[in-house]
Design brief:
110 residues
C-alpha cells in the first residue's frame, strides 16, 4: 500500500472518530488534509483498496448526516424552550403549535 493510501485511510478513520465525539474543531482541521491527500492520490489499481476507502467514506457520510440531524434537533428544541419563556405555547386540534405571546387570554378578561 502506498503512503498516500495509508494517509487517506488514517484520515478517514480520524474523521470518523471526530464525528462520533462531536469534535468539530478537529473535523475542520482534518478536512483540508483529506482533500490534499486525495488530490495527490494516483489512480489506485487495487480494487480492495478502492472498496475499503469507499466503505469508510460512506460510513463517515452516514455518521455526519446523523450528527447534523442531531444538531438541527437540538437547535429546534432550544428555540422551543426560548419561545416558551416568552409566552404560552399550546397545540391546536391539528397538532400544530399555536403560540400566544404575553399573558394567557383568560387572565386578560379579569
Amino acid at each position: 500500500m502506498m503512503r498516500d493510501d495509508m494517509q487517506i485511510e488514517g484520515l478517514l478513520d480520524a474523521i470518523h472518530a471526530a464525528i462520533l465525539s462531536a469534535d468539530y474543531t478537529e473535523l475542520a482541521r482534518l478536512s483540508p488534509e483529506l482533500d490534499a491527500a486525495l488530490g495527490r492520490l494516483a489512480q489506485p489499481s487495487d480494487s480492495a483498496l478502492i472498496l475499503r476507502l469507499q466503505r469508510k467514506a460512506e460510513r463517515n457520510a452516514i455518521c455526519a448526516t446523523a450528527a447534523a440531524k442531531g444538531v438541527r434537533a437540538a437547535i429546534r428544541r432550544l428555540n422551543e424552550v426560548r419561545q416558551s419563556l416568552n409566552g404560552l405555547v399550546t397545540y391546536g386540534e391539528d397538532g400544530q403549535r399555536v403560540e400566544r405571546g404575553g399573558q394567557p387570554e383568560f387572565s386578560r378578561r379579569l
